[in-house]
């Protein structure tokens, strides 16, 4: 077989440079070099991407409370037993995953959760319809609950009949609003969230998602096996001030209603007037530091429903 001539060298089909293993090794080396180059490119581009997001006003790392400690008072309620080591999965302890990078701020759905009525609890949520202990070939559970129990989301149709009739259910909620940079703030204690409270927080323009931690967390209300209507929430003027003076489109709070009991209807009406604000209620904010996070909230796609259970996490 004739030799193949290249400038400055002579290579035959039987030369070491021409063997199958040699070609494979060279291809592997080229692939490794390409992967290394891609990694380097990503390392260069990612910081620029985050800088652009900040410049666009969707994040605010410079917020004054970003390095503050969590609220100091320990929750007043006793967590139920069970669920992992020392009740970790079912208690007010910080629930972290991925080496502390992911924080779960969703309450576990349990029968002892408080319901929205004085002294009421949720009661049984899950029923085992088929059991292997009873001879079935499988275990099969059934879920029965209202759509506004535990950590959940309100769609605009919850307290606005025009929005409900227009089909603005949880399946129409904007996932772009439910996911993105979010600010966790501590609300002044001993008060509902009034217009004056909102002014005092000095939340910058451009911040779209805010989680409000209140006296409810200090009192451990979500850990009590009874509804407590003395919880803290938004007053009508507090809700209206937020709508008129901020860019906030997602409001999160630490009890089963975002609105104070005496302003239950009027505050919701203020929030839902324009159908562009999403309310996330009963968040588990125990022991989480204030500041900026990436929030991810995903409701169920319940067509025709004005509310849904929701899983929410923070990414540090």
TrEMBL record:
One of its GO terms (biological process) is L-tryptophan catabolic process to kynurenine. It comes from the Eukaryota. It is found in: Secreted, Extracellular space, Extracellular matrix. Residues 1-23, 74-93 are annotated as: Disordered. InterPro entries: KFase/CYL (IPR007325), KFase_sf (IPR037175). Keywords: Extracellular matrix, Secreted, Signal, Stress response. GO terms for molecular function: arylformamidase activity. The keyword Repeat does not apply. It holds the Pfam family Cyclase. Belongs to the Cyclase 1 superfamily. This is Cyclase. It comes from Triticum aestivum.
